[in-house]
């Protein structure tokens, strides 16, 4: 719906990700970039943009951190919907929650690459009594050609 704040990465990195330019491990690209799969966004468009973890990375993680969201209430839970691509077992995508009073990130969702090479979609619901940030982390264990972690069309409900 129109009340959702959508990051499709076509024009720029929406305001939800204020520090994106500092997080150089995630790259905004499209399927024609010559950087391996995915070769299109989740709609099958080769020239449409998405984010993927740099394949140059040797065994590390790339964190994409949102701005601070206000506490949720019963009427306005924070729902986040996103499309993701994880190919090969050495790739993992995690979504974490960091409450402002805590130093640690709580893992609320993760997938490793047992998947075929295809886009999938997921929605998570966050219920937090205090201000929080959400972190999308792509992890690379070993460096192999043609493997990828990518994310596209991240949509935030008005409860976020």
Order of helices and strands: EEEEEEEEEE
If you average the pLDDT, what whole number results?
85
Annotation, overall tally of beta strands: 10
What is the tally of helical segments? 0
How far the N terminus sits from the C terminus, by CA atoms, comes to: 14 Å
CATH class descriptor name = Mainly Beta
Globally, the shape reads globular
Strand content: 35-45%
CATH architecture tag: Sandwich
The structural domain count equals: 1
Helix % is: under 10%
The major pleated sheet works out as: 6 strands, antiparallel
Query: Would you identify the regions where 5 or more consecutive residues have pLDDT less than 50?
Result: none
CATH topology value: Jelly Rolls
Our Rg estimate from Cα atoms comes to: 15 Å
Structural class assignment: mainly beta
Give a description of the structure:
The mean pLDDT is 85. Strands 1, 2, 3, 5, 8 and 10 form a six-stranded antiparallel beta sheet that branches. Strands 4-9-6-7 form a four-stranded antiparallel beta sheet, with no helix packed on it. It has one domain: Jelly Rolls. The radius of gyration is 15 Å and the shape is globular. Helices cover 0% and strands 42% of the residues. With 160 residues, it is mainly beta. It starts with a strand and ends with a strand. It contains no helices and ten strands. This is MALR1 protein. InterPro entries: ConA-like_dom_sf (IPR013320), MAM_dom (IPR000998), MAM_domain-containing (IPR051560). It comes from Molothrus ater (Brown-headed cowbird).
